[in-house]
Amino acid sequence: MQIGELAALAGVSTRTVRHYHHQGVLPEPPRRVNGYREYGLRDALRLARARRMTELGLSLDEVRDVLAGDSARELREILLELDADLARQEAAIRVRRERLAVLLSEESPSPDGAVSPQMAEFLRCLEPVRDSPFAAADAELLALLDTAAEPEDRDRLLELMRPMTTPEALARAEALYRRLAELDRADPADPRVGALAADFAAHLPPELAAALARAMPGADDPFAQAFLADLSPAQAEVVRQATALLTDGQSS
């Protein structure tokens, strides 16, 4: 049979057949005198197998290797890997649907709701201090972390931050944010800078301070530079000094 007949039999396009030839999935058949390829039943069976495996999610390289050796053991290993990958995708989709369900349950969904339920619960605990622009910025950073971090890393961080949601801790945070706002037009050498940096560092629970010290980006890190760019010179100096206190405290 010719290429069009083979493609129709296997339910693919002639372009797919040629692509499989190019990728080594389907060997080149003998050609007629007129130069046309001449396919047989074995080619049709191989093409049908290739189609079924690609529909399962195998790459063409994997399909080629399996068909080349016709090894059931190798195919089983590949299918197990594929099954594990699909399970991870299924879990990720389930988490996304849970987030979507939370948004849909609200009469007026907010962009803040597009975080995980765990992060959304934590951010609700911070509502008493969210009026501060600095607290709002911190909440945005947490929302970004929720998107970028692995679930287990996020949950560990939230666990370490839980002591900061008590009424006493929120009151201290509100006072710290207010003092930071007062430095908007101050000089970086203002004596209030060092005192506030020390109080910010002391405000963090010890385990959280240790975790943040290990994860602190360097001064040349683009993320750190972007964060500091939104602050006044004195406010940025508070952050730098507080960061130094945290990292120095862990190294000493």
UniProtKB/TrEMBL annotation:
Domain HTH merR-type intervals: 1-69
PROSITE patterns in alphabetical order: HTH_MERR_2 (PS50937)
Superkingdom in the source lineage: Bacteria
PANTHER family (UniProt xref): HTH MERR-TYPE DOMAIN-CONTAINING PROTEIN (PTHR30204:SF93), REDOX-CYCLING DRUG-SENSING TRANSCRIPTIONAL ACTIVATOR SOXR (PTHR30204)
Protein name as catalogued: MerR family transcriptional regulator
Organism: Microbispora bryophytorum
InterPro entries: DNA-bd_dom_put_sf (IPR009061), MerR-type_HTH_dom (IPR000551), MerR_fam (IPR047057)
Annotated coiled-coil segments of the chain: none
UniProt GO molecular function: DNA binding; DNA-binding transcription factor activity
Gene3D superfamilies in alphabetical order: 1.10.1660.10
Family annotation (CDD domains): HTH_MerR-like (cd00592)
Alphabetized SUPFAM superfamilies for the sequence: Putative DNA-binding domain (SSF46955)
Keyword set, alphabetical order: DNA-binding
